[in-house]
Amino acid sequence: MSATLTIEQLKRLGRYPEATELAQHQLRQQPEDAELHYQLACLYDVQGLEQQAIPCYLAALARALPAARRQEAWLGLGSTYRALGQYQPSLDAFDRGLAEFPQAKELTLFRAMTLYNLGETKQAVADLLLLLAETSSHSDISSYQRAIRQYAADLDRIG
């Protein structure tokens, strides 16, 4: 019986409409619950209802959402805007997320995709090169970390 299952359990079972209904019901009872806003945003996203996810992400971020969830919410919000072709709001969301979580590599990665969509290909490639230099454990790449960083700083440099 789904009435005894939690939102997370329903989500894990792929029963997204039921999880959404439960989250909406709980949110009506607890409208200030940041976690419920976040869960509902994620549920809308997974069902392809990006337009409905945006206000939920914004509501979650406007409330006392724990740090790990805030980082995920910034990623979700930026990615959702990007999926809708709203590239400037996407970039703004990623920038705000990175201001709050400067070490969030996933935000940097998705931000680079948004930069590409905005026609900022040089900056996108530079950011991806830096990300690769910082995160790669592959010996053939990490041994060139210094060179990669130099190229990322000036992709057009000759000599």
Provide the fold topology:
Blueprint: H1 7-12, H2 16-29, H3 34-46, H4 50-61, H5 67-83, H6 87-100, H7 105-117, H8 121-135, H9 139-142, H10 145-153
Q: Would you mind describing this structure in some detail?
A:
It is a single chain. This protein is mostly helical and 159 residues long. It has helices at residues 7-12, 16-29, 34-46, 50-61, 67-83, 87-100, 105-117, 121-135, 139-142, 145-153. The chain has a domain at 92-158: Tetratricopeptide repeat domain (Serine Threonine Protein Phosphatase 5, Tetratricopeptide repeat), CATH 1.25.40.10. 74% of the residues lie in helices and 0% in strands. The mean pLDDT is 93. TPR repeats lie at residues 71-104. It comes from Serratia ficaria. Pfam families: TPR_5. This is Lipoprotein NlpI.
Number of strands: 0
Bulk shape = elongated
What structural class do helix, strand and pairing data support?
A: mainly alpha
Q: Helix share of residues?
A: over 70%
The profile of the biggest β sheet is: none
Question: What do the pLDDT scores average to?
Answer: 93
Element-level helix/strand string: HHHHHHHHHH
Strand content: under 5%
The CATH superfamily title of the domain at 92-158: Tetratricopeptide repeat domain
From the alpha carbons, calculate the radius of gyration and give it in angstroms. Answer: 19 Å
* Distance linking N and C termini: 69 Å
- Model regions low in confidence, pLDDT < 50 over at least 5 residues: none
Summarize the structure.
With 159 residues, the chain is mostly helical.
Q: How would you describe this structure in keywords?
A:
159 residues; mainly alpha; Serine Threonine Protein Phosphatase 5, Tetratricopeptide repeat; TPR_5; TPR_rpt
